[in-house]
Amino acid sequence: MTPLDLLSIGRVSVDLYAEQAGVSISEVATFRKSIGGTATNVAVAGARYGHRVALATRVGDDQFGRYVSHALEHTFGVDPRFVATHPTLKTPLAFAELDPPEDPSIIFYREPAAPDMEIEVTPELEAAVDEASIFWLPASRFAFDQSRETVTTLLERRGRRAHTVLDLDWRETFWESEAIAHERISPMLEHVTIAIGNRKECEIAVGTDDPDLAADLLLERGLDAAVVKLGAEGVMVATPDGARDRLAPYPVPVVCGLGAGDAFGGAFCHGLIEGWSLPDIVRYGNAAGAIVAGRMMCADDMPTGPEVDSFLEERDPR
After folding, report:
1. pLDDT at position 2 over 90
2. Per-residue pLDDT averaged across 67-80, rounded?
3. Labelling 157: which of 7, 50, 63, 187 has CA 20 to 30 A away?
4. Which residues of 179-201 are buried (b: 16+ CB within 10 A; e: fewer)?
5. In what order do the strands lie in the sheet with 83-86?
6. What radius of gyration do the chain's Cα atoms show?
7. Phi, psi of 40 (to 5 degrees)
């Protein structure tokens, strides 16, 4: 089969978004259903640009699991062949409480464990990792024993081939402590070519939230690029040649704070595949993130290329 442009590995869930913003979950009357999870949203975002994308994850042998596989393929254009079925664990749910919309809470239902915590290595998955132009993984993969073993095996097999991208993705609820997260995430920097994270995520990975120092420490691990998200100050991208580019964000009225980072990730992958310069990639990612911040959903509202192009033409004529 034709090699993938992007292979993403990680969490999937059925997401339920509160349709009433600014109220607690006890006051919410209705929800909108979709699929979600960092790796899932990045895969969907990458597919929106017309790329060959697959997601490696695991779902339950239940109606929600069948919904996930169907939606990936038929709604979002993501190859579901690496979506395995777990015989006993249920497909997880995630409820989004938009209170406030700018900083929503996620209520996870993943007990006693989630199927994506037990993703297994298969010959077919190994072949896809060997051939994919981009292998994208969130750092939360290292919070779970089986998942950590699987992803470490795949990273070692890939041999730090470009582009191997680590989303530093800090989800406190998945970890026992920040110290354990650092202990497990930091060594994985030796296996990737690009790391992307905000100040807190950089602190977990390399011990500092100072953007320039964090970028220096990331690059010292042999990375081709370090991408540090600065919130309202935009995004900094640093490379081993000493270049430091800071790209301003695009302010928009926020409808839902979820998904903007994943939209950035999908756009970032698009730019890598197209061979753009890193500043242009980050600028494009900032635009994609702003578009999703102004929308309700994550996967459903990931923008297409023409939508991002139109946004940039209006906001950043060049």
Report:
1. no
2. 98
3. 50
4. eebbebbbebbebbbbbbbbbeb
5. 83-86, 53-60, 6-9, 134-138, 164-167, 194-198, 225-229, 235-238, 244-247
6. 18
7. -65, -45
CA 255 to the chain's CA centroid: 20
**Residues 134 and 272 sit within 8 Å (Cβ to Cβ):** yes
Q: Which two tokens stand for residue 273?
A: 């595949």
Residue 165 tokens read as 């991208």
Burial of 267 (0-12, 13-18, 19+ CB in 10 A): buried
Residue carrying the six token digits 């292998």: 135
Where do we find the tokens 């600028």? 283
Q: Mean pLDDT across the stretch 144-169?
A: 97
Q: Read off the tokens for 200.
A: 């807190």
Q: What is the pLDDT of residue 318?
A: 61
* Cβ-based burial of 160 (10 A; exposed 0-12, middle 13-18, buried ≥19): middle
146 Cβ partners below 8 Å, 6+ apart?
Answer: 117, 118, 119, 120
CB atoms within 10 A of CB 269: 27
Could you tell me the pLDDT band of residue 317, with boundaries at 50, 70 and 90? Answer: low
Residues 6+ positions from 251 with CB-CB distance below 8 Å: 290
- Whole-prediction pTM: 0.96
Phi first, then psi: give them for residue 216, nearest 5 degrees: -60, -45
Residues 251, 227 contacting (CB under 8 angstroms): no
279 contacts 245 by C-beta, under 8 angstroms: yes
Taking only the tens place, the pLDDT of each residue in 87-98 is: 999 999 999 999
CA 158 – CA 156 distance, rounded (Å) = 6
Residue 281, CA distances (Å) to 80, 270, 275, 294 in order: 27, 8, 9, 20
Domains of the chain: 6-11+40-92+113-315 (3.40.1190.20)
